[in-house]
Hints:
Blueprint: E1 24-27, E2 34-36, E3 63-73, E4 82-91, E5 97-101, H1 106-116, H2 132-137, E6 139-142, H3 145-183, E7 206-209, E8 214-216, E9 232-234, E10 250-251, H4 252-255, E11 261-264, E12 269-272, E13 281-282, E14 288-291, E15 294-299, H5 306-314, H6 316-324, H7 336-340, E16 343-346, H8 349-387
Parallel strand pairs: 9-14
Antiparallel strand pairs: 1-6, 2-5, 3-4, 3-5, 7-16, 8-15, 9-10, 11-14, 12-13, 12-15
Amino acid sequence: MMNMKQPLLPKLRFPEFQKEPGWEEKTLAAISESISSGKDKANSKGVFDLYGSTGIIGTTENATYSGEYILVARVGANAGFLTKATGNFGVTDNTLVIMLNTNTCFDFVHYYLKNIGLNKMIFGSGQPLITGGQLKSLAISFPSLAEQRRIADCLSSLDELIAAEGRKWEHLRTYKKGLMQQLFPRVGERVPRLRFPEFRNAGEWEEKPLGEVIIVASGQIDPTERPYCDFPQIGSENIESDTGKLVNVKSAAAKGVISGNYSFDENDILYSKIRPALNKVAAPGFKGICSADIYPVRPARSDLDRSYLLYLLLSEAFLDYAIRNSARGKIPKINREALLTYRALIPNPAEQRRIAESLSALDAQIAAQSEKLVALRTHKKGLMQQLFP
């Protein structure tokens, strides 16, 4: 009795299946009409059977397939990554993927393999590799076909919701980009195309070199000394492109930073001078230190609003200028002189604040939508862990 195998049961089961027996364990080969890698011998169904010790048949010819297949990247950095292909589709290089279809619920198998993570099967001391033979012998558990479909339908519905919320997030980002193009004057113009009603008769914006209205930090500090080693340290990798969101922030000591840094506080804007095309600008609400690849800049005058300065540096006009004036080298970067000579267009302080408030409110919407997406993906991951044994 002690040696009897316990039935496989998921932690979470739909009510109509709670009295059904445990799931049955089978190999992936047992439920697959074909697992192919390369242009192998075609069988009567027009698909390709796996043969050979490795399942690798060398070819770089284009091939077109029809039907439902799960494609698994079999070699390289993405080995183990899988995706679905349905209808008519082409595979450019058959040696890079393993293809499988099933004689049971296709979506159930896809979600099951997603849940277990095929990257755990990767081997090889050099090029990461996963073979068709490994997949054929992979043991997975199956409930009845009805329960398979119920699980697949549930997860498919959740995927559709995630996709819809993802589109909403993209629409908000696109809307913000278009709005900024309207709220800031175009090159050669002194008035924006879109202006809030109370400022429509306020006249043209004033043009000034950025060096007249901002201060750029100078004088580096040693990040290994106190109190700086305990401060949050911001590198370019911690600033999200276009959004200004700060991610994965840690102390200088935790990151092991030893090279010279700049200090900043709540009055500064952080502008990443390397690879300006990435458009990395942030407005931290705390005191810290930042990489020498970042300029901490702040308003030099009371008539320049800090939040407006943030969006000015994120604007399309400044982005184009920074890209054009990046020093040519292995890593493009905008130097201090080029930054300070930029001809900035600046409205009166009240209009600056109105623009900044509008864009800040939109940023809050985008951030909330992003958090909703993260929560849904986390929920899906947890649900999958509960729905499969």
